[in-house]
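hi!! sorry for the late reply, been swamped w classes. u asked for the two structures so here they r. pasted raw, havent cleaned anything up. first the sequence of the first protein and right below it the tokens
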Amino acid sequence: MGMKHSDLHECSQLNELKMDMSILNMISAWHLSGDNILVEQMPIVGGYSGGLEETAICDVASTIASFALLNADIHLGGPIHIRWGTTTNRQSMQVAAATAMALDTNTDILLANQYYTLAGPCTVMNLLETAAQAICDTACGRELLSGVASNKGVRMDMVSGMEARMMGEASMAACGMDIHDANQILDRIVSWYEKFYFNIPQPKKFQDCYIVDEITPTEEYMSIYDSSLDILSNCGIDF
């Protein structure tokens, strides 16, 4: 398939805290091949586990299971909200933050998180959602950020490099940030975009917000990106 041993081979646990033979067979084959293994699990906030506290407990247990039962090299989390289908909402980030801090404080395992935004490319909302989660993940001790699946990852051509750029820049800006300062900044950012949950801005597909032949963003998207940086700066982020 063209994959190298150094590439990450990814498989998913079942919700919630379940395994099946297909996962065990896949993992066994990868171990025999000496591959690097990433196991993901996205517990549902408001689903089988219940509320925030219960889902955080489930998230911690799922993470430990990736290493104790499947001998993973990295765990890829991503609490997903049963109503919004995103990882960038306030409740999902509360679960992700508590989970990451608990594990980072008490273990040396490698933690990652997935990014599913409500808004799509070429919108300020999408970039602010991305920045908020990147700040949250970085301040709480995650080592790897995996994104961005815009528009909840369910629409074609709704991904571009600009969202990943924001994820990286926001993460670097949050490095070393005090957790209490990060929490105040996050409250300002999330309060900005969550009022648009029932009226999300119209996104643009990759081919409509990029110069495809050059793989570069359009001037419109660059302007939107700069506007997002201004809003984030007003919320307390120093880029």
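now the second protein. again sequence first, tokens right under
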Amino acid sequence: MATLEIDRDAAVRPSTSRRVDLKLEVVVIPVSDVDRAKAFYARLGWRLDADFASGGEWRVIQFTPPGSACSVIFGTNVTAAAPGSARGLYLIVSDLEAARRDLLDRGIEVSQPFHGAGDVHAGLDEPYLFGSIRVSGADPKRGSYSSFASFSDPDGNGWLFQEVTTRLPGRIAGEGTTFASQVDLAAALRRAAVAHGEHEKRTGGHDENWADWYADYIVREQAGQPLPA
């Protein structure tokens, strides 16, 4: 009991040492046919970073999704996990329909949009598993974090698109606003443009400080703060 109390105190006491960043950069996915998996992830349009081999005993392939700071690796003797056992792999997108359309244009099968029922989580890639309930269609209120679509690789490893347009507080790295890609920034600008149009209707005139208003809107949206009127 005494040891437990000491550990608990240590957990809440601020550290006096320099904080070390911990960056998740690689996720391992188990596959049965390495070349088939390589062809699939290339077909997704993901960037091929590496294909290293050592004889016939070891091979590792790395792909990175567009705009992602985290990559996936798979290969021969890379993991002991059963092929297809990786589930609930989230890909965050700012526009769910655009992400679905891109896969469909590439000939990749992807589910229709779905959302949860009430407060029940919908994101698990197995419908009805552990209380997960999927309702057809995107979230009617188009709430951030609420709309999904799913697809799988040839082994059955399960991927999810989750539409995130406004992040919850504390979900932004650093003090500034950053975007993973030009596509995400363009989507944020379009949302700001629509909101600014409503702002001008309410104020009854042209806003000469529209650039400042856009900047304030985007920073607030990304930080999960109340949006300007």
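hope this helps!! also noticed smth abt the second:
Helices lie at 2-12, 34-43, 96-105, 182-203, 210-223.
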